[in-house]
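explain this:
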Amino acid sequence: MNGRTLAGAGLLGVSLLVSMKMIRPIVNPDLGWHLALGRYIAATGTVPDTEVLTHTVAGVPTVAHEWLSQLISFLVADTFGVLGGRATRSRR
């Protein structure tokens, strides 16, 4: 193999790996945590700016960047059950 063929094969391999990664959906399996934070937001009426669910880092500043989807998922799950809440989670 010459250098050009080897570079082309490497580029093809990297392209295939990136394509396979992009096709596979990213799923956050921690539904319970999302529902718990949604419940917290619904109960308090505020989005926490410190960690409130993980006792080992309680009080540490955090950004709840998915707060709206967590609140909606909790409200749907509270109304329709966990399967209803699971249906609202993003499948990116």
